[in-house]
Write a structure and sequence with these properties.
Blueprint lengths: L2 E5 L10 E9 L2 E4 L4 H6 L4 H7 L9 E5 L8 E9 L8 H14 L5 E5 L5 H14 L18 E5 L5 H26 L7 H14 L3 E5 L1 H6 L3 H7 L7 E7 L7 E12 L19 H15 L5 E11 L10 E4 L5 E4 L6 H13 L5 E6 L3 H7 L4 E4 L3 H13 L4 E4 L16 E2 L7 H10 L8 E5 L5 E2 L10 E2 L4 H16 L4
Parallel strand pairs: 1-7, 2-5, 2-6, 6-7, 10-11, 10-14, 13-17, 14-18, 15-16
Antiparallel strand pairs: 2-3, 4-5, 8-9, 9-11, 12-13, 15-18, 19-20
Helix pairs in contact: 3-4, 4-5, 5-9, 8-10, 9-14, 10-13, 12-14
The structure holds ligand BES, manganese (II) ion and zinc ion.
Length: about 500
């Protein structure tokens, strides 16, 4: 585990294995970013020229290690590219967050490093702290990272006396969100034989208890008693029974309540409509929505946001067996409506439908679900953007905007009414699949049927960005990414601030 502290000691006087500096790319060559003045002095103000000579441009993602000159207590200087900056040369918070992530990853195996990056406002410090914790993340529960390969031990963020309080507050916010995203990543990366529905629910209970949330876990008996036909129908093919978990952060002065619903399929084999080889290897990722919901509610509690936030984790393992739901079976859902299951691989919408109805019973001021729901959304938007659907264009815009302000990439997607009739069933109220073209939107239209009237609702399909299969970049590692956590926290922050009349 990487620790993160704030220090006002002079950069040159800090004993460290490494000092990290930011460098932005300008048309006339690399420019050393503010925060690194002492390091530049130790290079006799020739740092930019030296970097230029070595071919370092300051492009985003670039790193270069230099032996530290006399005058610094550190051994090594690590330059990290901030990319092109706007006129005036100030890096955006997004660029800082990504660069801090790149730096933290490059520091693997290092003991103590000083981040002499431009982090003198609360927002910049939040970005640097968050990016650093995210970049330092590794998933080593089942393997040894190897000698000298573990995450950086200690990161120190530099602050001036004048801005220390602001910086400390920003670092605290960034740390909480970074840690909760890393918790989501751990849950996503955990293989499905270890993170069973029962184990996931137990984690929800333990983490919730640790941070003062109200937690309720419905096991298979309770689910049956209350007729959660969607969740039970998906879970009945597995020897590991399903769960519905409710976690709630409440604030005594809150006057708004948000409800978040997460798809928590701990493994998606497709069920009887079995997925082929090539499509089932990393379906442990299919609980990424529930992981985001759990950790966002925990973050809201840790940040003491003045808003109530309730999270619903709809957890099941989708497996084929003699007891599994079959194509053609009809399920009676929690609200009494019937669903013809044409394809058992369209299971996410079934567990979500029950959870949406249950969440709606508490009449929240807004309802947002998060799910690795369709391959179609991945085809449409690729692996870095998630789709946002809502019948309420204003609310959809608000969610997309919250994502952007939180540094996540989201795109508004429609819910075209003409696709709805493809979900008509001759035997039940609705079928669980419709036309294939626009499949991500059809899934959204299915969910819409289970949203209570009058509650602003948005559906986030994170099938692409929830899990990263390529080389790490920015603060994104291989594996679970923690997608949607920041957006959900931002929505909670917005709701908390709306109440107090603040303007951001
Ligand atoms: N969990 C999958 C969607 C998915 C695919 C997530 C790839 C991440 C990566 C979901 O349960 C699913 O199987 N959806 C089907 C729906 C279809 C049968 C209507 C799909 O998208 O193919
Ligand atoms: Mn599926
Ligand atoms: Zn699925």
């Amino acid at each position: 585990m990487t620790t993160l502290t704030v220090s006002t000691a002079a950069t040159g006087a800090q004993p460290a294995d490494c000092v990290v500096i930011g460098v932005s790319a300008s048309p006339v060559g690399p420019v050393v970013a503010p925060g690194a003045e002492a390091v530049d002095e130790a290079f006799d103000a020739g740092l930019a020229a030296t970097l230029g000579t070595l071919g370092f441009t300051g492009a985003e993602g670039q790193t270069l290690k230099l032996a530290a000159p006399a005058g610094l207590q550190a051994e090594v200087v690590l330059a990290v590219g901030l990319g092109k900056t706007a006129e005036g040369g100030v890096a955006t918070d997004d660029a800082l967050r990504r660069a801090a992530g790149v730096a933290a990853r490059a520091l693997a195996g290092t003991g103590r490093a000083v981040l002499a990056l431009p982090a003198n406002t609360a927002e910049a410090a939040e970005a640097v702290a968050m990016g650093a914790l995210l970049g330092a993340y590794t998933f080593t529960a089942y393997r040894d990272p190897g000698e000298g390969q573990g995450p950086v031990g200690e990161l120190v963020i530099q602050a001036d006396e004048a801005t220390q309080d602001e910086v400390t507050a920003g670092v605290r916010r960034g740390s909480v969100i970074g840690e909760e995203m890393n918790r989501a990543r751990d849950l996503i990366n955990m293989p499905a034989n270890h993170l069973t529905p029962e184990a996931f629910a137990a984690t929800g209970r333990d983490v919730g208890a640790a941070y003062g949330l109200d937690v309720e876990v419905l096991d298979e008996e309770a689910l049956a008693k209350e007729s959660f036909g969607g969740i039970l129908g998906v879970g009945q093919g597995s020897v590991r029974p399903p769960r519905l978990v409710r976690v709630a952060h409440t604030h005594p002065a809150a006057d708004k309540t948000l409800a978040f619903v997460g798809k928590g399929i701990t493994y998606d084999s497709g069920g009887i409509s079995l997925k082929p080889v090539g499509s089932n290897e990393i379906m442990k990722r299919d609980m990424s929505g529930a992981a985001a919901v759990l950790t966002a509610v925990v973050a809201a509690a840790r940040l003491r946001l003045r808003v109530n936030v309730t999270g619903w984790l709809a957890i099941a393992e989708n497996m084929p067996s003699g007891s599994a739901t079959k194509p053609g079976d009809v399920l009676r859902m929690y609200n009494g409506r019937t669903v013809e299951v044409l394809n058992t691989d369209a299971e996410g919408r079934l567990v979500l439908a029950d959870a949406l109805v249950r969440a709606g019973e508490e009449a929240p001021d807004a309802l947002v679900d998060v799910a690795t729901l369709t391959a179609a959304m991945r085809m449409a938007l690729g692996d870095r953007l998630f789709g946002v659907m809502s019948p309420d264009a204003g609310f959809r815009a608000h969610v997309v905007d919250a994502a952007e302000r939180a540094g996540e990439e989201a795109w508004p997607m429609p819910l075209p009414n003409q696709l709805r009739e493809s979900l008509d069933s001759p035997v039940a109220d609705i079928a669980n699949t419709g036309v294939r073209m626009g499949g991500g939107l059809v899934a959204g239209l299915f969910l819409q049927e289970f949203v209570p009237d009058g509650v602003p609702w948005a559906h986030l399909d994170i099938a692409g960005p929830a899990f990263h299969e390529g080389e790490p970049y920015g603060h994104t590692p291989r594996g679970g990414t923690g997608c949607a956590v920041r957006t959900l926290v931002r929505l909670a922050q917005d709701a908390a601030l709306e109440r107090s009349g603040a303007d951001r």
